[in-house]
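Task 17 of the worksheet. Students: predict the tertiary structure of the chain below and write it out as structure tokens. Keep your answer in the requested format; marks are given for formatting as well as content.
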Amino acid sequence: MKRLFLIDAYALIFRYYYAFMTRPMRNREGLNTSPVFGFVKFLRDILRREHPDCLGVAFDPKGGCFRREIFPEYKANRSATPEDIHAAVPYIKQLCEAMRIPVLEVAGYEADDVIGTLSHKAAAEGFEVFMVTPDKDYGQLVTDRVKIYKQKGEGVEIVDREAIKEHYGFDDPILVRDVLALWGDASDNIPGVAGIGEKTAIKLISEFGSLDGIYEHLPEAKLTPSVKAKLESGRESAYLSQTLARICCQVPLHMSLDELAYTGMDRAAAREM
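Model answer:
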């Protein structure tokens, strides 16, 4: 079975920027090369360890995404991206080009959506797909052929259907989206339902089967008055949050999976970089 690795670029860039925060590496011109170093090191580790058949690196585009049109406060709580990261990104893209790894970026859609779309397409064509990211919202995309691949210490953790079931208690990973609809996601400023935490959200989704199931049975549900009141007052926020948390798998990508085939780096170009 062919294997496709899809990398959430900014998730790794931020990870390595902050990993070297107290001792950043800089070149003679003062450029903070830590994000570049960390990103490329992990990329090369994947190449050496996994020997992927296909590979792509997805970036969030400038100008935001369609979720901002639905909810202007989406990700509005985030501080400005550090200038060192802005400065490093063009070099990372150039290095991807030198390594002959496609850079994937679609206006109006986040890297999550691009990766979701390609994962769905590749799995349907018989690939095994690994989404390289630490972000929990990707859990909704996990299937028998689609898994999360994330760094854990010096090794790697693979999050598959069994891992999702072990953590959340339900069989269908797509319900991770409904958990986020109730719990929210502070990192993306997705509100969820006020007063409902992760444990309660997981328990409710496990008991009622989905967000729709909760609200269809809410009047007669045997819940504490406090939880029932929170759900009743937070219905609109829950469905808004579900929409924001849902990863789009219909991004207009005009490319075949053959274009993601990894054929090895351009060593001269990589050496020059």
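Marker's comment: The beta strands are 3-8, 54-58, 103-104, 128-132, 146-152, 155-159. The radius of gyration is 20 Å.
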